[in-house]
Write a structure and sequence with these properties.
Blueprint: H1 6-21, H2 25-35, H3 38-55, H4 60-67, E1 82-83, E2 88-89, H5 97-107, H6 113-121
Antiparallel strand pairs: 1-2
Helix pairs in contact: 3-5
């Protein structure tokens, strides 16, 4: 478990309570767009995608293949595309075996947050 001092824990609890007030995916999207940079949000998204693929029983190699950037019909990868909203280059989805390993270790913790969230999404409760 991550260690936080008393002041950090108080601030985190406030953040968590703010998140719990949000009711729809759209409200959460707006909040996380304000709170996180695009790269931070993409990092969380990629970890969640990895988690779902691990839960489906995919191997490391299959996960890497599944989340690798696709080539477009022009032969360019999505790193060559521009983000129309910000005019910046988009980052390709790259998944390292280290990230997969960390997600899998957390997934294997029966009392972890990933298990709680996955279980609730599947209707298994907790």
């Amino acid at each position: 478990m991550m260690e936080f001092d008393k002041d950090e824990r108080t601030a985190l609890d406030s953040l968590y309570k703010a998140i719990l007030t949000l009711k729809t995916p759209e409200e959460l999207h707006q909040f996380f767009e304000d709170l996180c940079s695009r790269n931070e949000l993409c990092s969380m998204l990629h970890r969640w995608q990895i988690l779902e693929l691990i839960d489906q029983g995919l191997s490391y190699e299959e996960i890497i293949r599944e989340l690798a950037p696709d080539n477009t019909s022009s032969g360019k990868t999505n790193t060559d595309e521009r983000d129309s909203k910000k005019g910046k280059e988009r980052k390709a989805t790259k998944v390292s075996s280290t990230t997969i390993s960390r997600v899998k270790a957390c997934y294997n913790n029966p009392d972890g947050g990933y298990r709680t969230a996955l279980g609730r999404l599947k209707g298994e409760g907790k």
